Each structure stands twice: as structure tokens, then as C-alpha cells.
Amino acid sequence: MLRACSLGRVARPLPQGPPLDIRERTATVSGMHTHFAKVPGMESAMAGVEDALRVAVHVEDPYLHKIARHLIVAGGKRLRPAMAIAAGTAWGIGAPTEVVRAAVACELVHIGSLYHDDVMDESPQRRGVATVHAEWGNLQAIVGGDFLLARASEIAAELGGRPAKILASTIGRLCEGQIAEVRDTYRTGRSVDDYMASINGKTASLFAAAAQFGALMAGAGESQIEAARATGEAYGMVFQIVDDILDLTGTVEKLGKPTGHDIKEGVYTLPVLLVLHGAHPGGEQLRALLGADMDETRVGEALYIVRSSGAIEASEHTAHEWATRSREAVKAVGDLTAGTVLRNAADELLASLG
Ligand code: GRG
After folding, report:
1. Which residues form the pocket of ligand 1, taking CB atoms under 6 Å from any ligand atom?
2. Residue 116 Cα, ligand 1 centroid: separation in angstroms?
3. pTM here?
4. Of the candidates 33, 125, 138, 122, which has an alpha carbon nearest to the alpha carbon of residue 74?
5. Which of 214, 233, 240, 347 sees the fewest Cβ atoms within 10 Å?
6. How far apart are the CA of 12 and the centre of ligand 1, in A?
7. 183 versus 278: which is more confidently predicted?
8. Is the pLDDT of residue 284 over 80?
9. Where are the domains of the chain?
10. E strand map for 64-145
11. How far is the centre of ligand 1, averaged over its atoms, from the C-alpha of 303 (Å)?
12. Ligand 1 atom at minimum distance from 146 CA
């Protein structure tokens, strides 16, 4: 029996699907960022998300089904659905079925984009398992990702014209952000504005949409929906800047990939760009190293220049400014606990920088 998550009003039941194998349910709820876990009703709403994700990708063809569910059952932090539920609780009536379904649509778009991203990056692993392309091949990963986007679009269309439009334009924003990053690969002339625009599209737009969906589907008013969108967007900016800093400062054990992976792949992120464009010392030496694929020694030298330049601290400062924006957008909430959680959420990301 599927759960219909509702706080405060009668919810329509979630779509029926095949019986769920409870052993499939991963540790995602407990593995989720603890700041979102404190939102009232979060645990049961996220259990509804887990069920509905599996139902959403059910399809007759067992081959496509296996591909489509691969990263769902592998886990993940489920930050985007958690953001939707937190916003629905802060500004609306909580997590009725419509919020849960919108949250599911966001996670499906996220996973679809990961299928495609892993093909582009030739990544062998994701969420602790082999990537779809590594397991089945590039064609399967692309079409499997498309299938997830199709299912997300179907859910959004069932929720209404406005949710469908938000979802479609968000998918477009992801593509814009990603293609800007691809265009700028190995380009030492990439500006900080180019970087900001790219991460706004590829990462922040989906957090913005998740928060907007949460408030919208939980019955919030227009100014509250906009506040939710702004909070989600700023949180997403912090999320990506922190992720990019950790790529330069973290350990292999913590990152699950070599430190400086982005530099090696030609993705020049905020700290690197700050040095390249003269805001911090070492620009000339760094430019001489970058611009093409590098061996491990040169990656090590580039990391040393960036780490000793002060650009990491300056990037942390930028992330703090976005965290302030995220915090300040959380006004006029109905549920104070959810409001506090949202206010602190970006700061908790910053805390992972140590
Ligand atoms: C097909 C929608 C679509 C887009 C195509 C490939 C692409 C364009 C966009 C990729 C966007 C992308 C992968 C951005 C990075 C997002 C990101 C920060 C991923 C990691 O998110 P986590 O840490 O992952 O929340 P988990 O696994 O925990 O969910």
C-alpha cells in the first residue's frame, strides 16, 4: 500500500504500481542532510518520495526498468525532494500528495541529468555503484536518462500547467548551465561571471525549482513562492561553490575521486578563476600549467598555487554571501521549525568545509 503523505488536508493517493520490495529501500532518508531531516513530517514525506520514485519508473520492459531504477535504488542524499518538502512545510500546509509528487519529479530530473553527466565525464561510479553507461553502455544511459525526464514531465503535467512549465524551463536551465561549462572547458579566459552563470543553471536552478514547487503545491501565496525560489536558488549556489572548493581541498577518501579532478578535466571553478584573473597571486604560473590535460605532477603544482593564494578563502567568502541571501529570503513562514531549518541549511553546507 503506498503512502499518501498529507499534513493538514486529505491527499489524493499516490499512483498505484507494483508491490514494493522493502529491501530495495536504501538508507537515503537517514543518509539525508540532517538539517532537512528536522523538518516536521520529513521522514514520512520522504518515505512517500521513495515509494513514488519506484512507481514512477515502473515500465513493462524489464531491461528499461532495470536501467531506469539503477540510481534510484543506489540511494543518494535526496536533497532536492527534501528541499521541496521543507519549503512546502515552511510556507504552505506541509507535504500533501502534490508536494511529494513534485519532489519526485525534481529527483527524477536530477537523476536523469546524472545519467547524462556520467556519460559526458566517463565516470565509472556514482552513488557507490557502477554508472549506467559503465554497466550497460552510453546509448542506454542517454535513453535511460531521457526516460526519467519523460516520467518527470508526465508527473509535472498531471500537477498542472504551471508546474509543467517550471519543470520544462528548469530542464532547459540545466542544459544551458552544462553546455556553458562544456564550452569553457580548458578555457583559462573563463570569467567569474561565466562560472556563476553556469552553476546557476546546472545546479542552483533545480534547487530553486524544488523549493518553488514545494511552496506552490502546498498552497502558498505568490510572494512566498518567490521567497522559496530565491532560498532554493541561493542554497544551490552555496552547494556548488562548496562542492567546487572541496574538489581542490578535499582528500581522495572524502571525495571518492582524486583531488583536483576538475582542474584535470579542464573545469576551472571559482578559486582557480580568482587566481587566473589576478585577484590573488600566482596567475601567470597557473596559466602556464592550465589550458590542456595535465599529468599528476602538474595538477599537484596547480593545486599548490591555488591553495596558497588565498583564493580558497575568498571563494568561501562568496559562498557565505550566497548563504546570507538564502537565509534572508526565508521570511513570513508558517512553520517556524521548517523556517529555521531552511534558514540554517546553507550554513550547514558551509560547515562541511571544516
Ligand atoms: C538531461 C536534465 C538533463 C540535463 C542535461 C548533463 C546535464 C545537462 C546537466 C548536468 C547537471 C549536473 C550533473 C550538475 C551537477 C549537479 C550536482 C551538484 C550533482 C551532485 O548532487 P548531489 O551531491 O548528488 O546532491 P546525490 O547523488 O546525493 O543526489
Report:
1. 76-77, 79, 109-110, 112-114, 116-117, 127, 145, 149, 171, 174-175, 178, 202-203, 240, 243
2. 9
3. 0.92
4. 125
5. 347
6. 30
7. 183
8. yes
9. 26-342
10. 125-126, 129-130
11. 24
12. 1
Ligand 1 centroid to residue 117 C-alpha, Å: 7
Q: Using alpha carbons only, what angle is made at residue 106 by residues 102 and 110, rounded to the nearest 5 degrees?
A: 165
Burial of 185 (0-12, 13-18, 19+ CB in 10 A): exposed
Which cell goes with 238? 552555496
- Ligand 1 centroid – CA 179 distance (Å): 13
The closest-lying atom of ligand 1 relative to the alpha carbon of residue 239 is 18
Say if residues 87 and 210 touch (Cβ distance below 8 Å). Answer: yes
Beta bridge partners, 130, equal: 125
Provide the residue type at 132 as one letter.
V
| 48-78 b/e (C-beta count within 10 Å ≥ 16 → b) | bbbbbbbbbbeeeeeeeebbbbbbbbbbbeb
Q: If you take atom 6 of ligand 1, which residue's CA is the nearest one? A: 117
CA of 284 to the centre of ligand 1 (A): 32
pLDDT at 55 over 50: yes
Share of the chain above pLDDT 70, in %: 91
What are the phi and psi torsion angles at 125 (to 5°)? -135, 150
pLDDT digits (tens, 9 = 90+) for 143-177: 999 999 999 999 999 999 999 999 999 999 999 99
Q: How many CB atoms within 10 Å of residue 221?
A: 13
- Give me the residues paired with residue 126 across strands: 129
**Which atom of ligand 1 is the closest one to the Cα of 114?**
13
Using one digit for the tens of pLDDT, what is the confidence trace for 93-124? Answer: 999 999 999 999 999 999 999 999 999 999 99
Contact predicate 80/106, CB 8 Å: yes
H or E, element range at 80: helix 79-91
Residue of higher predicted confidence among 127 and 22: 127
Instruction: Give the ligand 1 atom nearest the CA of 107.
Output: 29
Name the superfamily (CATH) of residues 26-342: Farnesyl Diphosphate Synthase (1.10.600.10)
Q: For 328-354, what is the mean pLDDT? A: 94
Residue nearest to atom 23 of ligand 1 (CA): 77
pLDDT at 252: 80
Find the range with the poorest average confidence among 50-54, 164-168, 253-257. 253-257
Helix (H/G/I), strand (E/B), else coil: 163:
helix
